[in-house]
Specification:
Number of strands: 0
Radius of gyration: 21 Å
Number of helices: 10
Largest sheet: none
Structural class: mainly alpha
Order of helices and strands: HHHHHHHHHH
Length: about 250
């Protein structure tokens, strides 16, 4: 279970994607997700597949490691696909497009978290949304919460794996039998996991209080600076957005 969750894990490397400014990566992710919902033809989705393939190859993260992150949500993806095929309108084409959108969003988000440290994501969010502080929106606090959430995902997944191993060593049959039995077998995992999560949250709050978090403006250890490659990615993102808008209203297969 723990090994199948890659969201929130940082994969060390020196790839072109690793060296990009985190604000650039956030911008591209936003544009890519928007383009996914603008594309409505096979031609458009071919361009999105090409863009995603280039990004994954440039990250130099093993594809097998990245695909591993789909294992934990494969049931949700299949359930949504079947539900869309049965109740939705548009036939199998729309079902395939919807399924691909979910997979592409997960894969592109994995690229962001695998090539960017949680602290950098937090700083990029805070910097990008700083204009909202004019209306009193707690940008810094929100960015910190998101950063902590990304940090705790792999920690709690590993904790769940240890709890499952401990329960199995005591003779628990987790994931076996009928659906009702499977649900019951999860409870011995969920309760200790919640206790562990609350304990970690309590320890974190003491650590933040001891460092006077929230009192005054905090300094930034590593300042973000744009490079030529960042401007090129911004340009490519805008071109992708423009292409998605054009293909949205042009008759194409």
């Amino acid at each position: 279970m723990a090994k199948s969750i890659t969201l929130g894990r940082y994969y060390p490397g020196e790839s072109p994607i690793h060296r990009l400014d985190p604000r650039t990566k956030l911008f591209f992710l936003l544009i890519f997700i928007i383009s996914l919902f603008l594309f409505s033809s096979w031609t458009g989705f071919a361009f999105s597949v090409l863009a995603l393939a280039i990004v994954i190859a440039s990250s130099r993260v093993p594809l097998s490691y990245m695909v591993r992150g789909l294992r934990s949500v494969v049931f949700i993806i299949l359930f949504a696909a079947v539900l869309n095929a049965v109740l939705g309108k548009g036939g199998w084409t729309k079902t395939l497009f919807t399924t691909y959108r979910m997979i592409a969003i997960i894969m592109s988000s994995n690229v962001l978290t695998l090539t960017t440290r949680p602290r950098e994501i937090s700083d990029a969010l805070e910097k990008s949304l700083s204009f909202l502080s004019v209306i009193g929106f707690p940008v810094h606090e929100m960015a910190t919460i998101i950063s902590l959430a990304f940090t705790f995902i792999p920690i709690l997944s590993e904790e769940a794996g240890r709890i499952m191993d401990a329960q199995k060593s005591r003779g628990a049959r987790i994931g076996e039998g009928k659906l009702k039995d499977k649900i019951k077998s999860i409870m011995p995992i969920v309760i200790p996991l919640f206790v562990s999560a609350f304990r970690r949250a309590d320890e974190l709050s003491y650590a933040m209080d001891s460092r006077l978090y929230g009192l005054g403006e905090r300094s930034v250890w590593k300042k973000m600076r744009y490079r030529k490659s960042d401007y090129l990615v911004y340009l490519g993102s805008l071109l992708l957005l423009g292409l998605s808008v054009v293909l949205r209203y042009l008759p194409c297969p």
